[in-house]
Automatic annotation (TrEMBL), chain A:
Keywords: Cell inner membrane, Cell membrane, Membrane, Transmembrane, Transmembrane helix, Transport. The lineage of its organism: Bacteria, Pseudomonadati, Pseudomonadota, Alphaproteobacteria, Rhodobacterales. Its main location: membrane. GO terms for biological process: transmembrane transport. GO terms for cellular component: plasma membrane. It is found in: Cell inner membrane; Cell membrane. This is sn-glycerol-3-phosphate transport system permease protein UgpA. It comes from Antarctobacter heliothermus. The chain crosses the membrane at residues 9-29, 70-95, 107-128, 155-179, 200-219, 264-283.
From TrEMBL, chain B:
It is found in: Cell inner membrane; Cell membrane. The complex is composed of two ATP-binding proteins (UgpC), two transmembrane proteins (UgpA and UgpE) and a solute-binding protein (UgpB). One of its GO terms (biological process) is transmembrane transport. The lineage of its organism: Bacteria, Pseudomonadati, Pseudomonadota, Alphaproteobacteria, Rhodobacterales. Keywords: Cell inner membrane, Cell membrane, Membrane, Transmembrane, Transmembrane helix, Transport. It is a multi-pass membrane protein. The keyword Kinase does not apply. The chain crosses the membrane at residues 7-31, 75-99, 106-128, 171-193, 214-235, 274-295. This is sn-glycerol-3-phosphate transport system permease protein UgpE.
UniProtKB/TrEMBL annotation, chain C:
It comes from Antarctobacter heliothermus. Pfam families: ABC_tran (PF00005), OB_MalK (PF17912). This is sn-glycerol 3-phosphate transport system ATP-binding protein. NCBIfam families: PRK11650.1. It comes from the Bacteria. One of its GO terms (molecular function) is ATP hydrolysis activity. Keywords: ATP-binding, Nucleotide-binding, Transport. Belongs to the ABC transporter superfamily. GO terms for cellular component: ATP-binding cassette (ABC) transporter complex, substrate-binding subunit-containing. The keyword Transcription regulation does not apply. Residues 4-234 form the ABC transporter domain. InterPro entries: AAA+_ATPase (IPR003593), ABC_transporter-like_ATP-bd (IPR003439), ABC_transporter-like_CS (IPR017871), ABC_transpr_MalK-like (IPR015855), ABC_transpr_MalK/UgpC-like (IPR047641), Mo/tungstate-bd_C_term_dom (IPR008995), NA-bd_OB-fold (IPR012340), OB_MalK-like (IPR040582).
């Protein structure tokens, strides 16, 4: 721990005030507002909000549409995380062999991180468009083989693929960094011990990047729950028939289209709890990771 | 290391090439569509080779979506987020790391908690705040009775109002209100040896001078890393601008892009102008991708050290 | 039989050549220490023997078989790394037995072998621990056990003791030598520490800037350093060097303005008029009355070593050190005569730094034969 400090606490107050002010206005206040709204109901004829306790939550949790949204979000989160991380891990393991062309491969696997969600959404919406592009071949051969505009499962699949595409680079960067932080002498020692490339991946590299795997599972799940709006909004608008109505999108729809602030706030609180739970889980694990090494 | 693994090398190259292809092919198809006429785009079977309409379509998309204005706005947004983060995060981290006061850990945790909840999950109330950024203070005054007191004593009705909808401030501020960056700086500041602080004190440098002349110059690489990440994040904003900007003069590129293809449920079967939309997609994705490729080293370092 | 033969081996990274044509023959069962300052190419040479680095040109053969293109696992070498390179996620038993597991030895057989080797290095109580729970010395033992269990023909050590504290280092040094004597595998040990080199080696290889300066038994290297470089590197406190000119007429080397070191007449005759560097070990210099010695030094200060003292003298613009068991109390600036036994005067070429002659006929030839 640091022992040399500056003593002038006025300066300290001065330098931290701007950020504290901003997070108060744009973070703590809205978050507390969400709580307030979640437990109150706006009076139809004005006159402030009425305290309704858990009524909003009770209503929400008895709504099949909400549970459907939760289910779709979980499917989306699990599938994008699994797809993106699986692909990223395999690519990172092999890229880390640093054969010829390594630098080109690396940049080629990193840049998609920078593509905006709406751009990804539009691109994949076009590519999976049933009446043009690649999918049209399949539909030509087998009519109605692929139609995300009408078929909810197809739409969800399409959104998952776009979401996974968006996440691959992020996981790849972390996996590669994790692999490269393994001391080279460990790889060399196992090579001297007779282990060949694949064996080393399995026995040495994979076990040693498990902390990165856990970290990425949490980050990717959190991201899939919270950061999916751009893709859904540009690809399906939650449709068809709410098949891709992810939680974040539903909050937006209910809050800004339906003007149901209390309902949206209650949904926000539930999503917040979910995210906080995931983060908490991660911290528990990170603690152990420190002990581990 | 000496390794004779000819087959595995081929496998390695194949896997990596497949991965690259999965990431590149969608963008290739975008480029193809952006370089064709609409009938070509919709032709069955599809034409998978680029046409000659790329420039035409890029121009059309540029005009159609008013990207001249939107790019300026997006640039202002991204720059605002970058500068805001760089400055605020540095100041806060400085205050947390180099001063020993009772509020140090509470402030640390207050800032830290903001990492947990992204803007998307508190979007509705944040929007309400943006409609009147002074509403928190108004509420506090109302609840504590100060408004009433002022009204009773001076006859002035207390009505604080600062509308941030349709403004750059409104676009930028909520995006700055998280702890990304503060942690990057904090971790770096914690590696600054005590001796450096002591030496600065011996030389008679005050805290602000120490910050300006020692810490900031030492943080340049961290700042470059943070700036790269924040530029990409700022440029790619979608939900927040979609909500608070209704005046086209303040519109940003990503939102405008989505307007190039009308919503499925409302088109009534019209074929969207895919060729323009794909050209627009290319235009919008280009700047952040270029930044990431050019600033690859900083970008990777920033991403890993901020833990997002 | 696992003799190692290295012929004209070079290593370059891009245009940068770091090992410039090394020739070295290591006999079966020999303990060879490669020693030199950091960046001299000693670790690179070791890693080329291990197969961890490809060689740029030349040839390496182990047990008569050229291994240039063989993978590390095919060379029959075991290595102890500087930072031990223990697998942090495996237990001590897992670390020691990993090579056998890779070689698909049966579980029961493997466990028995691990237990046996662990006992031989005193680790039997720690088999279930993770490396993170071990002390530095214990980790070092695990690294040793991991190498031993494979019964390799060649042991490679890459500065394995440099992370240990001084006391433990000496203890582990003895242990390594004991293990070598017991197993009898060919051992190549890289270090920058001359004490380790002198005490462990059958033969030492002194490297500098990517080339070998001298190969020889510790005694040879100490008594007959082949160059100024070796003479300065080996020996502590280090050798004094003085520039001078040989004068056959007086059978001496003239140093500076009024210094003079006598040498045998025939040696002086052979080198008449030559500019030379002479090397004098601190323990070969003795202190006499002012004017009586070969040169006169001005006393500066003395360092107490316990078993003796190291006296520092100023001679013209040089500092000379003298190691003596005698306890003198000189005043700073006091003039003291310094003299050297002609037998112990090392003479090197003033321009190239190469040794110009041997002090005495190679009466230590026998030691080489022993090594062979």
């Amino acid at each position: 721990m640091r022992r040399a400090y500056f003593k002038n606490n006025w300066v300290a107050a001065l330098v931290v005030t701007p950020q504290l002010l901003i997070i108060f206005i744009f973070f703590y206040w809205p978050t507390s507002q969400a709580l307030y709204w979640a437990f109150t109901l706006e009076q139809p004829w004005g006159g402030g909000n009425e305290w309704v306790g858990f009524e909003n939550f009770r209503y929400l949790l008895s709504d099949d549409r909400y549970w459907h949204s939760v289910w779709v979000s979980v499917v989306y989160a699990v599938c994008t995380t699994a797809l993106a991380m699986g692909m990223a891990l395999i690519l990172a393991l092999f890229a880390d062999r640093q054969l010829r062309g390594y630098k080109g491969v690396r940049i080629g696997l990193i840049w998609p991180y920078a593509v905006a969600a709406p751009a990804i959404g539009l691109a994949f919406r076009f590519i999976f468009n049933p009446s043009a592009g690649v999918a049209s071949y399949l539909n030509y051969a087998f009519p109605d083989f692929w139609n995300p505009v009408m078929n909810g499962d197809h739409a969800l699949t399409m959104v998952i693929i776009a979401g996974a595409w968006k996440q691959v680079s992020y996981s790849f960067i972390f996996f590669l960094a994790g692999l490269q932080s393994i001391p080279r002498s460990l790889t060399e020692a196992s090579a001297m011990d007779g282990a060949r490339v694949m064996r080393r991946m399995w026995d040495i590299q994979l076990p040693l990047i498990t902390p990165t795997v856990f970290f990425l599972v949490i980050i990717n799940l959190t991201d899939s729950f919270t950061d999916s709006f751009g893709i859904v909004s540009t690809m399906t608008s939650g449709g068809p028939a709410r098949a891709t109505n992810l939680m974040v999108y539903k909050i937006y729809e209910d809050g800004f289209r339906g003007l149901d602030y209390s309902g949206a706030a209650a949904q926000s609180i539930i999503l917040m709890l979910l995210v906080v739970a995931l983060t908490f889980f991660q911290f528990k694990y990170v603690e152990r990771r420190v002990h581990y090494s | 290391m000496i390794e004779r693994t000819p087959i595995l090398n081929i496998v390695t190259h194949t896997i990596l090439f497949t991965g690259l292809a999965i990431l590149v092919v969608p963008i290739y198809l975008v480029i193809v569509a952006a370089s064709q006429t609409l009938p070509d785009v919709m032709a069955i079977p599809a034409k998978l080779l680029p046409g000659d309409q790329l420039i035409v379509n890029l121009k059309a998309a540029w005009v159609e979506a008013e990207f001249a204005t939107k790019f300026t706005n997006t640039l202002i947004l991204a720059t605002g987020v970058v500068v805001g983060k760089l400055v605020l995060a540095a100041l806060t981290a400085f205050g947390i790391v180099f001063f020993d006061h009772r509020l140090r850990m509470p402030i640390f945790w207050m800032v830290f908690i903001t990492l947990m909840l992204p803007l998307e999950v508190r979007i509705v109330p944040t929007y309400a705040v943006a409609a009147n950024a002074l509403s928190p203070f108004q509420s506090i005054l109302d609840v504590t009775g100060i408004s009433w007191l002022i009204n009773a004593t001076t006859g002035v009705e207390v009505a604080l109002n600062w509308n941030l909808l349709n403004s750059y401030t409104g676009l930028i501020m909520p995006l700055v209100a998280t702890a990304t960056g503060t942690f990057l700086y904090r971790q770096f500041f914690l590696t600054i040896p005590d001796e450096l602080v002591e030496a600065a004190k011996m030389d008679g440098a005050g805290p602000l001078r120490f910050l300006r002349e020692i810490l900031i110059p030492l943080s340049v690489t961290n700042m470059a890393a943070l700036a790269t990440i924040m530029f990409v994040v700022g440029w790619n904003q979608y939900l927040w601008p979609l909500l608070i900007i209704t005046d086209p003069a303040y519109g940003v590129a990503a939102v405008e892009l989505s307007r190039l293809v009308p919503n499925m449920n409302t088109t009534g079967g019209d074929i969207p102008n895919w060729h323009w939309a794909m050209a627009g997609t290319l235009i919008v994705m280009l700047p952040p991708v270029a930044v990431v490729i050019l600033m690859q080293r900083w970008f990777v370092r920033g991403l890993i050290n901020t833990d997002k | 039989m696992a003799e190692i033969s290295i012929r004209d081996v070079r290593k370059s990274y891009g245009k940068d050549e770091v090992v410039h044509g090394v020739d070295l023959a290591i006999y079966d069962g020999e303990f060879v220490v490669i020693i030199g300052p950091s960046g001299c190419g000693k670790s690179t040479l070791l890693r080329m023997i291990a197969g961890l680095e490809a060689i740029s040109s030349g040839e390496i053969a182990i047990g008569g078989k050229v291994v240039n293109d063989l993978e590390p696992r095919e060379r029959g070498c075991a290595m102890v790394f500087q930072n031990y390179a223990l697998y942090p996620h495996m237990s001590v038993a897992g670390n020691i037995g990993y090579a056998l597991k890779v070689a698909r030895m049966k579980r029961a057989e493997r466990d028995a072998k691990v237990a046996e080797v662990a006992r031989s290095v005193g680790l039997d109580e720690f088999l279930d621990r993770k490396p993170g729970q071990l002390s530095g010395g214990q980790r070092q033992r695990v690294a040793m056990a991991r190498a031993i269990i494979r019964e390799p023909e060649v042991f490679l050590f890459d500065e394995p003791l440099s992370n240990l504290d001084a006391k433990l280092r000496v203890q582990m040094r003895h242990e390594i030598r004991r293990i070598h004597n017991r197993i009898g595998a060919t051992s190549v040990f890289v270090t920058h520490d001359q004490h380790e080199g002198m005490t462990l080696a059958d033969r030492m290889v002194i490297m500098n800037k990517g080339t070998i300066e001298q190969i020889g038994t510790p005694e040879e290297v100490y008594d007959h350093p082949a160059s100024v470089y070796v003479a300065g590197f080996i020996g502590s406190p280090s050798m004094n060097f003085l520039a001078g000119t040989v004068e056959a007429g007086v059978a001496a080397i003239r140093l500076g303005n009024d210094g003079r070191i006598d040498i045998a007449a025939e040696r002086a005759k052979a080198l008449d008029g030559k500019l030379v560097q002479i090397g004098l070990r601190p323990e070969n210099l003795s202190m006499v009355a002012p004017g009586a010695g070969a040169i006169t030094g001005h006393f500066e200060f003395a360092e107490e070593l316990g078993s003796g003292r190291l006296y520092h003298f100023q001679f013209e613009d040089l500092t000379l050190t003298v190691l003596s068991a005698d306890k003198h109390s000189f005043q700073p600036g006091q003039e003291v005569g310094l003299t050297a036994d002609p037998v112990h005067v090392h003479i090197f070429d003033g321009a190239t730094g190469a040794r110009l002659d041997t002090l005495e006929p190679m009466r230590r030839r026998a030691s080489l034969e022993v090594a062979q």
